[in-house]
Prior knowledge:
The protein is mostly helical. It has a single domain (23-450), classed as Growth Hormone, Chain: A (Up-down Bundle), CATH 1.20.1250.20. Helix content is 78%, strand content 0%. The protein has 15 helices and no strands. Helix 8 (239-245) crosses helix 14 (383-414). The longest helix is centred in the middle third of the chain and has 38 residues, at 247-284.
Amino acid sequence: xxxxxxxxxxxxxxxxxxxxxxxxxxxxxxxxxxxxxxxxxxxxxxxxxxxxxxxxxxxxxxxxxxxxxxxxxxxxxxxxxxxxxxxxxxxxxxxxxxxxxxxxxxxxxxxxxxxxxxxxxxxxxxxxxxxxxxxxxxxxxxxxxxxxxxxxxxxxxxxxxxxxxxxxxxxxxxxxxxxxxxxxxxxxxxxxxxxxxxxxxxxxxxxxxxxxxxxxxxxxxxxxxxxxxxxxxxxxxxxxxxxxxxxxxxxxxxxxxxxxxxxxxxxxxxxxxxxxxxxxxxxxxxxxxxxxxxxxxxxxxxxxxxxxxxxxxxxxxxxxxxxxxxxxxxxxxxxxxxxxxxxxxxxxxxxxxxxxxxxxxxxxxxxxxxxxxxxxxxxxxxxxxxxxxxxxxxxxxxxxxxxxxxxxxxxxxxxxxxxxxxxxxxxxxxxxxxxxxxxxxxxxxxxxxxxxxxx
Length: 455
């Protein structure tokens, strides 16, 4: 068009990977950078958490599985507190308060480790599990608050690229830095990263100060005099209350339970083959002088690096095209079909090579395509559902899947003498249920996308 300035080089480059239109690139880039920081911190903590708890005792993998129940119970109280705070303060204050809490906790864990406080590995595992889910959940609520469904479907794949890149960075630098500075000095690095994330959130909030996604077929709700709509706290009501009022949200919650049941069963397989591999390496003297905990930490860091490079490639080159060609309602079937095939293979032989390969596909698809789908599913929901119901689903129901996996492990190891291949076979059954739920969500999504969102 005459008078339109030429597109920038960054804008032209972004078109290779997603459908970004003029005027959208800066905010998309800032959001991608923010989730990049959050996920970098997540993988720093995850590598420390997993290695610390697996090496904590002889039955470390079992303990890790059982502690998911403690995290699920903790999340019931966390979500209630989060919902109450969200009804009292604007979104940028909400995000700041939650993130500052986690920064302070990381500093406390650093000091307690220096003091050799007993049972700290268990406490840190629970803390890191809460941090890992709540921070990304509130970020995606923030991103959903900015965009309409039409825009969000286009830009979320590129925002989620920051998520994938942060995962690669976090797992890679952990593997590099542990031999140099040790495991627990990384806690201070994680705290600094979260501090930078707060600064970005405020900058994005001010940049988008007059903008909030409007209900379909209408305009954004009016704000109080002198305030932007996004400076208003959310309406009263808890996340669980919103969840059980909506069939759509309930189906999403059940899908998340099944997804994590499958994923955590698979993680139990991986933990066992890694622990066996570490014991064998120590027996043969091939650990390079590292003890079991440090050697496991390196194994996990390298595994996460491989997963996250896979995530990066899928997110960069495939997710936006899948969204464009198939849409959300069809794309949601891809992850359970991959799980069905992968665990079908593992059920015939849960070797180190096979289990690592299956978990790379499983985790890689979950962290790229499925994460983007999960964010996009809330584009057709209200503001309260975006923050409160999503926080409940992405925390309590994620951990509910982990609890069911823990019960599976307990029964299988205590009473039924399950082999590792048996757990892979169970995942086949759960993947079928996952596919059925994907169909139900697609049906409800179609209805909600066709109807106006309540203000």
